[in-house]
């Protein structure tokens, strides 16, 4: 209402096609509404020029790129870069010009129009829809301007036609999507399948729209990435960065094109590039051309230790996490770096990892982002230590450490000092320092592509840089020396003392006494001060694990640290009691949330099979549900099993009282216990093959030597004994072990489920006809979901007949007579084949099926009707069942009203 002062005239226009009437206003001229108070004027803060947008690779003109690369001038530029005699400065300038010229072929000028939005969100909205919509709008304007019955009728006719066309288009599009989903599964094209799933669910992965002005972002990141760190021994830094002349160091051999090709093959498609807009697909599509060019470029960089300026630039895309959108701390920064910079960083990473592995640089306690290691390894070691000492009646004192912005705050000078103290190749060190010198970033301010001003960064490792994870692991690697004293009372695995476990910046400090843990925390705090690390005292927790645990007061530098009963470490919730009930509860909550996000795949009315929804359930929900089950899978799994069957019942549209074994058998699913057993065996096999110095291997050896009844390996042996295949026998089978155990496990649990179905009185048809536990064929035939569900309910005898409802009223089976009064038991056979009340419906829908059947065995006839080998059979039986149920319900309603 505050804008009404700017309107000179306000009228309501008539509209007959809707009850929403448009409001027409006439505003004063701009000179009349100019604000008198200068504070009313809104300014845009530090807004840079609009940035071009990247074309999707599918929309790129590949012919134009081929022509550009074959251009004589471009070929000449390539020869300059590849020639070993070229000047390094000239090479970098030539490469920069070449990439800049390519940019125009890979970008477009953005147009944020409603038309683009409609085309993007409604792909089914074709040209015929647009033409009919235009005709409808013209007709509506005429009908409003010239009130006439003929014009009004014409408008209504066009509106009905338009709505009908829209409905048809949506239906055809959805049918096409479901068909493509099935086809992608059949062809095992996982990329296309998950793209279709994402588009079908219309999942919004993140939002890049932020109300924060550029000036605030610039201040925030300038403060974050330019903190003054530890400046001790700065002379060493100067020695590394200044006195090492690349010309005095041994030269490296020329980079070979095949080295670049190997790295290019590891690049992932559909990833956003950096400021140069050159995507990974460009280097893969013209692999040989780029391999030779980049090999020459990398050789010049290795010799001169000069880095292209664009490689030091990062584009930060802030993604909102939670909390107030006006607070920059509530955003997760996604860093975009040039793909060529990533390729070269990968080249350096290969060299630095070779040096690290050859010299055993990184400690065994560090598992973060290292090849062949995972979060499960650390959790396995921690759980072994907990079980080992708890079985002796002892408690384990643990401190779960959280660092504030650890990757962003480390002191680079200190990092270079630590490298200089090793035997690392000095040329390799200079190249890494050069890559991290004079780094800057810009913040993308929204979907329009506008960028902030440049922000210099002098601390932390770069987000998005392939080297960052190794650099951080190396930076905190010397913490082991700090926490290596005997008076810290660390737990032991065999003869090895383990005071700390690390997964990048996720740490857990352990001790066998409160005194030992206090000493370790004091030393760790001193280490953080010397290495510019900030302990997050709010998120760091203490937990005492054991039966006779006590509560203590914990302080660090006068700040209270909370002692808790549970803590989520690397995705697994550990409890002070050593039990797993908290973790199972949290897993079910996360899986329930994940199941809700794919609700559209469960409920739709278009023809399709059940396979896409089942595949998403297996690949998305189940991994969430049983994450870390390698560690905790020996506990009571009743709640986990109940959750799986609940979701499968929902998928089939069955009642919550349906037999669990029957639901699993219908969909070809194994019990959760069987799935977890396979995971545990696979992990045991992996640990068994590890190097003898690896911590998980030492824990397994420790369990073998000091086995107690609650140990992990004893529980696994007990489960394996139930399958009749000892662990040692499987170990001797080698690569065939997994397949043998999988088949054995499937056979055992399939037989158990079939036996359970056979004993059930609620599933008479399945008890006599269910011979295997594979996915039933009728579920793989494209049928509209409502018909498929009614067909499934008929197989499970859950269509409301007396055989089902009589069970709830405790009526004996032989007295559950048909409601139509013919004194016959109303089971599924009577309902489909015999009941005279449905004779007309039976003739209309089932006659083609019954007339061609010649066998005198009625059981065979029931098999034909409910096994669903053909689409026509499923549809006819489903329609008959649906109509008969409605007729039965109407009859019962009349009977009730007659009484």
UniProtKB/TrEMBL annotation:
It comes from the Eukaryota. Pfam families: RVT_1. PROSITE patterns: RT_POL. Residues 300-574 form the Reverse transcriptase domain. This is Reverse transcriptase domain-containing protein. It comes from Anolis carolinensis.
């Amino acid at each position: 209402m505050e804008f009404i002062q700017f309107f000179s005239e306000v009228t309501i226009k008539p509209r007959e096609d809707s009850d929403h009437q448009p409001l027409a206003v006439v505003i004063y001229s701009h000179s009349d509404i100019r604000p008198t108070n200068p504070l009313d004027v809104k300014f845009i803060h530090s807004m840079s020029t609009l940035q071009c947008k990247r074309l999707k690779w599918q929309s790129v003109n590949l012919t134009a790129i081929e022509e550009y690369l074959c251009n004589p001038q471009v070929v000449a530029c390539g020869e300059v870069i590849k020639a070993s005699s070229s000047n390094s400065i000239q090479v970098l300038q030539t490469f920069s010009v070449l990439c800049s010229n390519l940019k125009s072929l890979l970008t477009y000028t953005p147009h944020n129009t409603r038309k683009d939005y409609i085309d993007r969100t409604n792909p089914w909205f074709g040209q015929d829809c647009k033409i009919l919509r235009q005709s409808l709008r013209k007709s509506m304007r005429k009908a409003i301007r010239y009130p006439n019955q003929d014009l009004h009728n014409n408008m209504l006719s066009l509106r009905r036609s338009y709505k009908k066309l829209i409905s048809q288009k949506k239906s055809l599009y959805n049918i096409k999507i479901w068909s493509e989903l099935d086809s992608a599964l059949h062809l095992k094209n996982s990329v296309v399948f998950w793209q279709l799933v994402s588009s079908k669910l219309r999942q919004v992965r993140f939002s890049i729209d932020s109300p924060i002005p550029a000036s605030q972002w610039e201040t925030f990141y300038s403060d974050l990435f330019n903190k003054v760190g530890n400046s001790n021994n700065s002379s060493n830094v100067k020695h590394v960065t200044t006195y090492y002349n690349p010309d005095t160091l041994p030269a490296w051999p020329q980079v070979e094109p095949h080295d670049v090709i190997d790295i290019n093959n590891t690049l992932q498609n559909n990833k956003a590039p950096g400021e140069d807009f050159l995507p990974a697909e460009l280097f893969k599509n013209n692999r040989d051309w780029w391999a030779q060019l980049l090999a020459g470029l990398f050789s010049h960089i290795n010799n001169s230790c000069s880095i292209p300026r664009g490689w030091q630039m990062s584009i930060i895309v802030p993604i909102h996490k939670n909390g107030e959108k006006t607070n920059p701390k509530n955003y997760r920064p996604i860093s975009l770096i040039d793909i060529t910079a990533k390729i070269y960083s990968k080249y350096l990473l290969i060299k630095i990892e070779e040096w690290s592995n050859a010299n055993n640089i990184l400690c065994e306690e560090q598992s973060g982002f290292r090849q062949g290691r995972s979060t499960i390894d650390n959790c396995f070691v921690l759980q072994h230590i907990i079980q080992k000492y708890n079985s002796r009646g002892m408690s384990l004192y643990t401190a779960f450490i959280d660092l504030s912005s650890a990757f962003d705050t480390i002191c680079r000078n200190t990092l270079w000092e630590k490298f200089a103290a090793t035997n690392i190749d000095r040329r390799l060190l200079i190249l890494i320092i050069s890559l991290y010198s004079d780094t800057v970033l810009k913040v993308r301010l929204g979907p329009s592509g506008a960028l902030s001003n440049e922000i210099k960064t002098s601390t932390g490792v770069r987000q998005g840089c392939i080297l960052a994870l190794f650099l951080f692991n190396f930076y905190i690697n010397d913490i082991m020396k700090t926490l290596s004293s005997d008076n810290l009372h660390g737990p032991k695995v065999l003869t090895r003392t383990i005071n700390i476990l690390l997964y990048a910046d996720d740490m857990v400090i352990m001790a066998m006494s409160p005194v030992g843990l206090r000493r370790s925390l004091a030393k760790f705090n001193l280490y953080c001060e010397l290495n510019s690390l900030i302990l997050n005292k709010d998120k760091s927790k203490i937990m005492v694990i054991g039966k006779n645990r006590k509560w203590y007061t914990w302080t660090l530098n006068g700040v209270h640290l909370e002692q808790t009963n549970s803590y989520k470490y690397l995705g697994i919730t550990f409890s002070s009691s050593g039990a797993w009930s908290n973790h199972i509860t949290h897993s079910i909550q996360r899986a329930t949330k994940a199941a809700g996000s794919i609700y559209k795949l469960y409920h739709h009315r278009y023809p399709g099979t059940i396979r896409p929804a089942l595949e998403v359930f297996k690949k998305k929900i189940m991994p969430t549900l049983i994450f870390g089950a390698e560690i905790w899978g020996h506990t009571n799994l009743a709640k986990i099993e109940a959750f799986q069957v609940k979701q499968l019942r929902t998928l089939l549209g069955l009642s919550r009282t349906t037999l669990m074994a029957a639901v699993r058998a219908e969909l070809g699913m194994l019990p959760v216990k069987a799935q977890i057993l396979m995971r545990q065996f696979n992990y045991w096999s992996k640990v068994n093959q590890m190097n003898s110095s690896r911590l998980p291997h030492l824990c397994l050896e420790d369990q073998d030597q000091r086995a107690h009844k609650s140990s992990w390996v004893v529980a696994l042996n007990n489960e394996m004994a139930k399958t009749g295949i000892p662990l040692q026998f499987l170990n001797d089978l080698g690569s065939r072990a997994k397949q043998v155990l999988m088949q054995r496990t499937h056979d055992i649990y399939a037989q158990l489920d079939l036996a359970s179905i056979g004993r059930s009185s609620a599933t008479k048809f399945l008890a006599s006809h269910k011979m295997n536990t594979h996915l039933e064929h009728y579920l793989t035939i494209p049928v509209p979901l409502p018909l498929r569900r009614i067909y499934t309910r008929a197989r499970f005898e859950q269509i409301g007949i007396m055989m089902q409802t009589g069970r709830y009223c405790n009526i004996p089976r032989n007295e559950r007579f048909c409601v139509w009064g013919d004194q016959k038991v109303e089971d599924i056979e009577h309902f489909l084949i015999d009941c005279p009340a449905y004779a007309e419906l039976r003739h209309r829908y089932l006659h083609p099926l019954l007339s061609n059947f010649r066998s005198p065995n009625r059981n065979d006839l029931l098999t034909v009707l409910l096994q669903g080998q053909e689409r026509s059979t499923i549809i006819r039986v489903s329609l008959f069942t649906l109509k008969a149920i409605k007729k039965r319900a109407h009859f019962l309603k009349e009977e009730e009203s007659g009484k």
